[in-house]
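F.,

This is the one I mentioned.
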């Protein structure tokens, strides 16, 4: 099997020749391994900065052993960030972004004072169809699509992109207070995400990776009832539109945190794959997930990079990986991956050790 065949078999709940593997790297690890493998660092700037590492370094990752490549929407070709002060600059949404050692932090939101539908209408939302959005995605699909499984990244799909525009506290309070402007804002976010996703499907990706971070370490951030009322119908509309373009498109839903109460909803609305199966939160025990959902939804992720990977104990990691492969991938249905982008607190030797273990599963 080549990599694409391996992932497709797993997502059809068939037993592949081995458990497929996917991973993302932070900037310092991209630079380290690019030098080691003689591959030029390849950064693709997403319309939202923290997605950039998801859609970068595809040549490097495939060379290291990933069965997947990830592509996504880029900044518009005519966009130029404006410096606010020091190292803070604006992105296409008008957010003020400050780089940190791990990510880029939003320090000012463009709709932090929004109170009415008129405020939302007055806000200039980026055009999902702007020239340049799909240039790198199309090149990577053409280059890697025959041999590797191609994922189109649309994380920050609805809830999360919306609150990044207003600020989390304001959005949560106004959502609970049923402020009218919230639905107007959500409409614009849905239009943007749908536009990006449709273009990726038309370009030839195998899967669309939707994403919200709906959970904390202990529970969902909003009640399942509120999510079902305010967000599930929007996801269902997006999925319906994408399947009208390609009925075979595989739908992945990403949510960090303890979101097990939503898994039945994910299945009912047409999600094929649940990611990242974050360990160490309620509802993520592999045995329980396999018993309750095996055969109904596939799993993608599961490896602990909050504590286990930074410790670097390869014996511990191998035991965990073999257990997850045996339980979650018993009858196919599992794409193994760290539960997040591998961060700078993980040693390069640990990354390579994990990749070697993965080849034997």
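My design for it:
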């Amino acid at each position: 099997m080549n990599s694409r065949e391996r992932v497709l078999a797993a997502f059809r709940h068939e037993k592949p020749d081995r458990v497929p593997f996917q991973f993302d790297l932070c900037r310092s690890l991209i630079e380290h391994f690019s030098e080691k493998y003689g591959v030029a660092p390849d950064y693709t700037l997403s319309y939202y900065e923290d997605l950039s590492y998801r859609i970068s370094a595809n040549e490097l990752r495939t060379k290291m052993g990933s069965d997947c490549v990830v592509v996504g929407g880029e900044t518009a070709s005519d966009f130029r960030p404006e410096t606010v002060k020091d190292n803070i600059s604006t992105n296409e949404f008008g957010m003020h972004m400050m780089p940190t050692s791990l990510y880029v932090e939003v320090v000012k939101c463009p709709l932090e004072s929004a109170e009415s539908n008129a405020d939302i209408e007055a806000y200039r939302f980026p055009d999902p169809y702007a020239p340049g959005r799909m240039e790198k995605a199309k090149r990577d699909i053409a280059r890697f699509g025959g041999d590797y499984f191609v994922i189109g990244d649309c994380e920050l799909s609805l809830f999360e992109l919306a609150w990044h525009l207003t600020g989390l506290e304001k959005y949560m309070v106004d959502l609970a207070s049923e402020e009218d402007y919230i639905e107007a804002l959500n409409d614009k976010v849905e239009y943007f995400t749908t536009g990006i996703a449709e273009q990726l499907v038309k370009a030839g990706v195998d899967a669309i990776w939707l994403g919200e971070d709906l959970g904390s370490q202990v529970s969902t951030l909003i009640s399942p009832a509120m999510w079902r009322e305010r967000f599930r119908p929007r996801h269902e509309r997006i999925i319906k539109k994408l399947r009208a373009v390609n009925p075979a498109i595989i739908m992945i839903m990403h949510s960090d945190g303890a979101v097990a109460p939503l898994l039945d909803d994910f299945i009912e609305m047409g999600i094929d794959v649940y990611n990242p199966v974050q360990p160490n939160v309620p509802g993520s025990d592999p045995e329980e997930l396999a018993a309750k959902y095996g055969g109904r939804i596939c799993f993608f992720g599961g490896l602990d990079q909050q504590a286990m990977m930074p410790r670097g104990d390869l014996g511990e990691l191998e035991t965990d990986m073999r257990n997850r492969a045996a339980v979650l991938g018993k009858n196919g249905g599992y794409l193994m991956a760290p539960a997040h982008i591998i961060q700078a607190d993980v040693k390069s030797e640990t990354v390579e050790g994990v990749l070697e273990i993965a080849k034997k599963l």
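The chain has a mean pLDDT of 96.

Talk soon.
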